[in-house]
Amino acid sequence: MPKLTLMFDNKFVREVPVGSRPVTIGRAPDNDLSVDNLAVSSYHAKVYFEAGRM
């Protein structure tokens, strides 16, 4: 299964699988990938597959 990896300053932070449902990214704690950085909005992005592409 494909994975989304969060790196900061070339260091591994966290990894989440990307499957049949979208992965949400943002500062808010209810995101799948929560990023504690003021440069990231509360609900910054959503990663998903469409027509076999991410």
Automatic annotation (TrEMBL):
PROSITE patterns: FHA_DOMAIN. InterPro entries: FHA_dom, SMAD_FHA_dom_sf. Pfam families: FHA (PF00498). Residues 23-54 form the FHA domain. This is FHA domain-containing protein.
